[in-house]
Amino acid sequence: MSAVALARTGQAMPLVGFGLWKVPRPICADTVYNAIKAGYRLFDGAGDYGNEKEAGEGVRRALTDGLVKREELFITSKLWNTFHAKEHVKVLAEKQLGLWGLDYFDLFLVHFPIALAYVDPNHRYPPEWWGDDGKSVTLQDTPMQETWTCMEELVDLGLAKNIGISNCQGSLIIDMLRYARIKPQVLQIELHPYLTQEAIVKLCKELGIAITAYSSFGPQGYYELSMDRGATSLFKVDAVTTVASKHGKSPAQVLLRWATQRDIAVVPKASGPERAVENLKSDGFELSAEEMKAISALNCDLRMNDPADIDPRLGIFA
Ligand SMILES: NC(=O)c1ccc[n+]([C@@H]2O[C@H](COP(=O)([O-])OP(=O)(O)OC[C@H]3O[C@@H](n4cnc5c(N)ncnc54)[C@H](OP(=O)(O)O)[C@@H]3O)[C@@H](O)[C@H]2O)c1
């Protein structure tokens, strides 16, 4: 399976993994187990997805059944916004590891460069964006430097092999490099043909930070949330379908290959086994430079996932 070697550890991060956002709890263990059986090795989880215990059950069953060894898996998780303060980062990482039933994460990311008021996990977990009233968002003054220092300690303690960030822009990354003892090894961002993110891809290549694209299918995963901004499905646009028929591949496979061909990792989420396999088998062909260019020309800087929609004070992409 194709992979990128991460800076500092040299660990191989598979280029195609399985995304766990919106995988319902009742089917999550089986979904993970079957994905491992199908050949997936990387799982992209997060405290916020609320299904870490069930994902861990799937992993443990696969380990017990001898489908795979722990060291062959690459498990990613993320620290939620309400746990950025120095007294909470390690506690939450340990809680999340406990849910998965793991000793370490291969990669632990700061989910958003947004610090929100602490919510005791015994009170509500995962806490999501809002307070108890389900409406108000309470910011907290924890600078990224404090959170990042704690992330580095997770590496020192062996709780995370690699650490990184998500939803960050160039100016914040450049600032982090001024104080980071351990550089972020991965940046996970929304990236698809409607939002090609060329400048940050270039910056990260320069800095030796690997990129994981999320929402590779653009609006597809957002239709069910009415967060699709009225965008046409990327599975239906000519630039993608023409290339797909030429190569005898599905539009989904073309969209994934458009990223992985440039060493940008992808973590598509699929409900059925056929789609999961289709997505995993998306790296056995090459798009020509012209085809890559035609797909990239769909860029219109259209972002689906913007916390400013929740509260304008969360305008991290402003
Ligand atoms: N860091 C962050 O802030 C962040 C934010 C968003 C997402 N993520 C990560 O990225 C992962 C993927 O992003 P995403 O969930 O937004 O969406 P996505 O993977 O781009 O798209 C998922 C949608 O595409 C459909 N689909 C999957 N494979 C398909 C195929 N081969 N043919 C046709 N349809 C297909 C799925 O339908 P079915 O489910 O019905 O099969 C679902 O509706 C998440 O699960 C999560 O791990 C991270």
From TrEMBL:
Record-annotated active site: Y49
Where do the NADP-dependent oxidoreductase domain residues begin and end? 18-299
Q: What InterPro entries does the database record attribute to this sequence?
A: AKR (IPR020471), Aldo/ket_reductase_CS (IPR018170), NAD(P)_OxRdtase_dom_sf (IPR036812), NADP_OxRdtase_dom (IPR023210)
Q: Which residues bind substrate?
A: H111
Name one molecular function that GO assigns to this entry.
Answer: oxidoreductase activity
Record family assignment: Belongs to the aldo/keto reductase family.
Write the protein's name: Aldo/keto reductase
Organism source for this protein? Answer: Roridomyces roridus
Biological classification of the source: Eukaryota, Fungi, Dikarya, Basidiomycota, Agaricomycotina
